[in-house]
From TrEMBL:
Assigned keywords, A-Z: Endonuclease, Hydrolase, Nuclease
Protein known as: Restriction endonuclease
Alphabetical list of SUPFAM superfamilies matching this protein: Restriction endonuclease-like
Taxonomic superkingdom: Bacteria
Length: 264
């Protein structure tokens, strides 16, 4: 199987739609100019050092490595993946063109490769091992063959991976302190996503209590849109009085409609 890659769509997936709509991936480092004539890692490192002389050698090496991979090591036909954390979906495709400099797509991300996108894969369809591997925070990094295989399986079948509980627990605990910021966010979303409606209701009530409110949680059954009522005094006499209607859905939320519940 060919080498696979992940290119981050900026913080929070800001460039995800631009990547998808323009059939590209792109990275930054605009200040160093086009990489067209910089055919080796050493030449790129020299340009990075000239542009940012205050950078430490480790930072220079890291940037030069990612730029060299993007310019020279990624080949046409290689699998490529990017991620939308808001919708929890991976966009999967293949590299379709050589390196080029093009600032028309996103001015701060002019280093571009064309891509033939094949489709989206929900994070929830992947194995724990794949989700862990995809949690790295580098702008660009390599994927192992088993993760690529899992992504392509999910893209074709739209079915979740088979679960080996013992292996899942062992893998989930592996390298827990690496890339902790973004991995912690994704792991938290995984856990919240697995809650049923009643557990989610308790979670929302607990968050309100952590913010200093006292809450009343409606028992199961008709609640007339008032699953949780929160206020500073617990009786609703003091403002603000918060009325929460908890909704639970499994699929990704493309857009959030205006809520019926309100704070008064």
């Amino acid at each position: 199987m060919r080498q696979g890659w992940v290119v981050r769509a900026e913080r929070g997936g800001r460039l995800y739609d631009a990547f998808k709509d323009n059939s590209v991936i792109a990275i930054g480092w605009r200040e160093i100019g086009p990489l067209t004539e910089l055919k080796t890692r050493a030449k790129i490192a020299a340009r990075v050092t000239t542009t940012w002389p205050e950078w430490k050698p480790q930072a220079v090496a890291m940037s030069a490595g990612q730029l060299h991979r993007f310019r020279s090591e990624m080949k046409i036909g290689d699998p490529i993946v990017t991620y939308d954390p808001g919708r929890r979906v991976y966009l999967v495709g293949e590299i379709a063109g050589d390196y080029r400099w093009d600032s028309s797509i996103e001015i701060g991300y002019p280093n571009v490769r064309s891509v033939a996108w094949q489709g989206e894969v929900s994070r929830d369809l992947l194995s724990v091992r794949s989700r862990n591997s995809l949690g790295a925070i580098s702008t660009l990094f390599q994927l192992s063959a088993d993760v690529i295989e899992d992504l392509l399986r999910a893209l074709k079948s739209h079915q979740p991976a088979k679960v080996d509980l013992a292996a899942s627990v062992e893998i989930a605990e592996e390298d827990v302190f690496k890339n902790i910021q973004e991995k912690a966010i994704e792991f938290t979303k995984d856990r919240v996503h697995a809650l049923d409606w009643s557990d989610l209701q308790e979670l929302v009530a607990g968050l309100l209590r952590a913010m200093g409110y006292k809450t009343r949680v409606s028992p199961a059954g008709p609640d007339r849109g008032k699953d949780i009522v929160a206020s500073p005094d617990g009786f609703g006499f003091e403002a603000p009085r918060i009325v929460v209607e908890v909704k639970r859905r499994k699929e990704a939320i493309g857009s959030i409609s205006r809520p019926n519940s309100f704070c008064r």
